[in-house]
Amino acid sequence: MSLPLGYTGPLSGIILGIIFGYVLENAGFGSGCKLTAQLRFQDWAVFKVMFTSIVVASGGLYLLQGLGLVDVVNDMFVPSVFIWGSTFGGVLIGVGMAVGGYCPGTSMVALFSGKLDGLVFLLGLGLGTLVFNAFSGSIETWAWKQVGPDSLTLPQLLHMPVWAVWGLLLTVLVVVGYLTRSKMQNRSASGARSPSNMTAAQQS
Fold it and tell me: What is the rounded distance in angstroms from the CA atom of residue 67 to the CA atom of residue 73?
């Protein structure tokens, strides 16, 4: 990871990490309630923020490819898909996020926001990593056995041009944003009409 003007290595990671944490905190991701509300389909902020970052990053990457500044084959590592390992790991991560209310990144944000549950989640994350390292040898034979698409990007996998895949991602973001807009507006309106808010307005 690097930045322009010669900022490379650890300094680049620190700067981008601070920016990323600031964005997550301002999006409300320092609270475990935000993620669990997304998993209950009650608050789509997590999907919108993360999918927006995917659309922006992929669009920038596609633009750099088009300008000849990035070569996916030589400049980027595209991993193969290990079906069983990815499926099992994805399920465990999903369960952990649903129970704890955080992912690794947002738990760091919660910790530095002064939330104790962020620390508890990080301790559990560290313990889980140690347990995985202890048993990784015994599951390696089947977790890495079934190999899916071999180092394929999404356009290669779908046999679609790059611009079409990016347009599809953008369409998904716009549609979800439109379909969930009325729900968020109704929630904001109901919050404004709540007894506590009405009492505060009367007192003022």
Answer: 15
